[in-house]
Amino acid sequence: MQTVSSLADRLGMTPELAVEKLRYMLIEVEGAGAEISDDACDLLIEAADDPEAADRVRNAKLLEQEKVQKRTERLKEAAKKKAAAKKKADDAAETKKPVAKKKAGARGKEGEVEAEEEHVGDDSGHAIAE
Questions:
Q1: How far is the C-alpha of 12 from the C-alpha of 8, rounded, in Å?
Q2: 55 CB contacts (<8 Å, ≥6 apart)?
Q3: DSSP letters along 46-79, please?
Q4: Count of CB atoms within 10 A of residue 110's CB?
Q5: Is the whole-model pTM more than 0.70?
Q6: pLDDT tens digits for range 36-56
């Protein structure tokens, strides 16, 4: 790894200009004495040779950031929709549960009454035919 200033000296530019070009290309640099990655070195060399290269790199990174941002927004909206649908389903399920309990309770009482009618008889537990 090289420092920005050592690479700038080899390219015949000032370290401040090198830092400015790197930041223009959306590469994070602490300062002129900071070490930079091999990829950043290659990009700075390319930008020194071809002034339009910095614009191409910057535009490509901006497009990539925009894609990531749009994808994140889509995922957030999808999560909100999913949460809203789940809440709606939960609310609907809650409103149906009390109604279902009432029906089950009504059936249970009828069943008990029918069972009592069938087992009318003496205390011995034997049913008496009617």
A1: 6
A2: none
A3: HHHH-HHHHHHHHHHHHHHHHHHHHHHHHHHHHH
A4: 9
A5: no
A6: 999 999 999 999 999 899 999
